Amino acid sequence: MTDSSLTGLCATAPVSVGPAARRPTRGVTVRWGDKAVRVGGGAPVVVQSMTNTDTADAVATAIQVKELALAGSELVRITVNTPEAAREVPAIREQLDRMGVSVPLVGDFHYNGHKLLSQFPECAQALSKYRINPGNMGGGKKRDDNFAQMIEIAARYQKPVRIGVNWGSLDHELMARMMDENSRRTQPWTAQAVMRDALVVSAISNARRAEQLGLPGDAIVLSCKVSHVQDLIAVYRDLASRCDYPAHLGLTEAGMGSKGIVASTAALAVLLQEGIGDTIRISLTPEPGGDRTREVVVAQEILQTMGLRAFTPMVVACPGCGRTSSTVFQELADSIQSYLRRQMPVWKTRYPGVETMNVAVMGCVVNGPGESRHADIGISLPGTGEVPSAPVYIDGERTVTLKGDHIASEFQAIVENYVERRYGAPGSQRP
Predict the structure, then answer these.
(1) pTM for this entry
(2) Low-confidence ranges of the chain (pLDDT < 70)
């Protein structure tokens, strides 16, 4: 194709890249001691998670909270469903403080939250935020009184609240009323559409009532959780168009393993790309004996791969093909990725900016050298039938070629040296 034949094919301006501008929202601050996590108001999207221990077991819960916090969860929610659980919340907080874990705790309340917060004021004070589900607080005047009691306690102790509605526990009276109204429409909506509208109406109306009861408008976060991807996208687009409260995103009951990860990513990525969402949780059903921190890693990887935040150096690796029948590059990619994540608790304070580093581990000559040059540091391993040598590229330049049986350990040492030299303080850099 000649240069002249390209006339009319080239774009008149560069194609825009990146997410839409963040939706303007109020900023909510969740505190514990000197620790302050900002949700909304232009702050970076916050990662949070939830324990699955019995909160009445203070030791087990504190241990899991610590694990989630070390993995990168910036808020951790715990179930507070019984007097025994509420009684142990201050002990959990105390243990975390002794371990130097300052992550704020969010209390998850359903059905009896008004009683527990009233009967256990130490629990109300030890928590940094309350999650309230208005659909699980009774009906009629009882529901109104219970909701008011929780909001008044939150205002008294200056605790922010997430008003979280869920289509599995939507206010039945509200839903019935909106279905009646829908039946009088000239062209009635589908039941599914009415339910989506009811979720948004419930969240916003309860937020406004909370403000009327004395809770500041900058102490309210909203969520409208469903378990189907397209419904979640539609609900949050609608919610974002109707209010400026910060939004907590999450696909509820997402499922196990790859299904849960794919469904959550499909839903949240669309919303985040549109500038919707101020804090996220990936609700994965854990496999038997599985690691609870996986949901934190997935949340971080969604945000990082979209370019919204950086948590740990990213590893680019080819998928493998008939050119890479050896498993060497797979093993090296896995070991380097695991190594980088293990190092981050130390590196994030010692080497500011290291979380933005890109590492390439490629398996053959097709794309290996090119991808390695595009990364901050990369290695192109020999594929099947290729010369048994592995060139290493640093900042786009080929620097050394590794050979023999110790390529993995030698490359890791090169990565360590690069991190110290590029991201370390001038006085600590190696020559």
Answers:
(1) 0.93
(2) 1-4, 7, 426-431
